[in-house]
Amino acid sequence: MNSNEETQSFEDITAEGARAFGEQRTLNRRRFMARLGLAGAVGGATFLAGCSGSNNMASSGSSTVMAAGPSEIDVLNFALNLEYLESTFYSFATQGADLPSSLTAGSGAITGAPPAKIEFPTQQITDIFNEIFFNEMSHVADLQSLIGTGFVTRPPLNLAAAGAVTSANIITIARQFEDVGTTAYAGAATLLTGTHLMYAAQILAVEGFQAGALRLISIQQNAPFAAADALDVPTFDPGAQVLASQGPTSAGGFFATSGTDNATSAMPAALAFTRSTSQILQIVYGAAGMTGVSKGGFFPMGLNGNITTS
Question: Which residues, in sequence order, are bridge partners of residue 64?
């Protein structure tokens, strides 16, 4: 397929197609689990590693965490809010238009969108961003299908919360989104079971693919680094094999993992960093280090759902 054909295929994608893909994948998973005799054991879980960081869970058949924790639907809707932000950002950046209306019925106002789709430095980078757009749009359809009738609508978004979206900063903003998304899903792993764990693990892998690609592009294009908080590792080319083989340091590395001087007993070397819901909200609200914040930044009126405060 040539570049023009590929670009056209992205522009022709419909929300119905993305949703149908997600529903078929869900059906295939259910059939697989039924064959294993596991369908009745598919339990609920939480998505992001909530405020406590605890592994206390209800029994495997429960749909909620224990007493103080958010419900399963609450945490999945928290994830959906983040996917709305990413997919809307990539839609305007690559297509020059909003997401299909079937994914955004009842949406809040969108401000700060670029006036036209972004011109990327190379055709390869254009293609990468187009594929990221498709993935993020599909994540919205996947989560809406998984949650069912209880999914939240898209809240008001300010896409320019990190500055007007231009060809000069698009890689920097996108890289921050993907790194934050990866650490958010990584924070969920110990709190998930069954179908939710499968979805989160597969979305985590996609976010990791995208984060890795954008980190390499950042090195190649010398894109500015914008740390969200102390967990972020700057992209840095050590320039020598011996340094690279020792792993990342707090000064930087190829990947956002714990390494030579930033690994701890709780975060052994070569693992991805994790973030809690509070940490994620501090970033997307533009309120790093502040708890008790309920709106701001990319979400000027806050998230929709029950997990809204850092």
Answer: 71
DSSP state, residue 233: P
Query: In one letter, which amino acid is 49?
Result: A
Amino acid identity for residue 268 in this structure? P
SS3 content of the chain, % helix, strand, coil (to 5): 50, 5, 45
Helix/strand/coil for 255? coil
Is CATH 1.20.1260.10 correct for 10-227? Answer: yes
Q: Which of 86, 283, 252 is nearest to 165 (CA)?
A: 86
Cα–Cα distance for residue pair 177/82, rounded to 1 Å:
9
Taking only the tens place, the pLDDT of each residue in 144-167 is: 998 999 999 999 999 999 999 999
Alpha helices in 96-248 (DSSP H): 101-104, 123-147, 170-186, 194-221, 241-245
Q: How many residues does the chain have?
A: 310
Spans of all domains in the chain: 10-227
Q: What is the tens place of the pLDDT at every residue in 235-285?
A: 887 777 777 888 888 888 888 899 888 898 988 999 999 999 999 999 999
Half-sphere exposure of 122 (CA within 13 A, CB side): 6
Torsion on CA atoms 15, 277, 288, 207, rounded to nearest 10: -40
d(CA 169, CA 192): 35
CA distances from 82 to 75, 105, 189 (A): 11, 17, 17
| Beta strand residue intervals within 205-298, DSSP E | none
Paired sense of beta strands 157-158 and 110-111, if any = parallel
- In the block, residue with structure tokens 């939480």: 46
- Within 13 Å, how many C-alpha atoms sit on residue 109's CB side? 5
- Cα–Cα dist 26/68, whole Å: 30
* DSSP 8-class letter at 111: E
